[in-house]
Prior knowledge:
Helices cover 53% and strands 10% of the residues.
Amino acid sequence: xxxxxxxxxxxxxxLCSIQFLRMALLWTFSVAFSHYQxxxxxxxxxxxxxxxxxxxxxxxxKPICVITGATSGLGLxxxxxxxxxxxxxxxxxxxxxxxxxxxKKIKGWNEDxxxxxxxxxxxxxxxxxxxxxxLRQWLLDSDLHCSVQILINNAGILAxxxxxxxxxxxxxxxxxxxxxxxxxxxxxxxxxxxxVSSKIVNVTSFTHRAVTNMQVDEGTVSGKRFLKxxxxxxxxxxxxxxxxxxxxxxxx
Length: 252
Ligand SMILES: NC(=O)c1ccc[n+]([C@@H]2O[C@H](COP(=O)([O-])OP(=O)(O)OC[C@H]3O[C@@H](n4cnc5c(N)ncnc54)[C@H](OP(=O)(O)O)[C@@H]3O)[C@@H](O)[C@H]2O)c1
């Protein structure tokens, strides 16, 4: 009973905090503005934007898609959808148990799914490098073409308390931005060896629009600056991490 009251008080405190109110206001505005822009573009622009990707029918062997954070949410549905399209889906997650449960789940929806799971922590460069080595080895041992057709950097978190990675970065920035950056750089040779056009998809967020004074110093990009703050500005860090990822998208 005491714990229940404590949780209730904590929730009320969270809902009344400046951070939450800022998030409710700015994020709603960001989403509304993005929808307005999409609507405006659909009315006044006749340019059809298409993002062609390799179709399993045109690929000499089965095409491969690597997706991070596929054990739940958007990642899980994307993994399932791509498996139905005929992709060999490589799912990456932190927990062996969640990964095997995910494989069972996707197989339940699509018994023909070709899946392979790798355990890796996207917030750690060391873990991503180990994953890269295992992925290459697995590709060499299999009868698949030694390349990747789609990389989806989907794993992301919104952490409300500060955590530092073993490499000394803010956990949220490391997961949402540094990890995808390292993963992309590591898999670039495999994406470039694809006999058909390959794709990188970075899952960002409308909330990146809330960033007004983007700074690119080492302290901000690594998140170390935020770890020194008295109160962890989690909403701003999330926005920053997604803005950094958005800039990466623009550069590619
Ligand atoms: N949902 C939304 O409304 C929304 C809106 C805008 C943008 N997004 C973005 O869309 C992406 C997916 O969101 P979601 O709502 O589907 O998230 P979710 O259901 O919370 O799933 C997050 C996934 O990321 C994985 N993950 C988290 N930290 C990881 C780490 N260090 N290493 C490896 N995997 C890690 C988790 O896997 P494990 O726990 O198994 O490791 C999980 O599978 C995120 O990047 C999010 O920021 C979501």
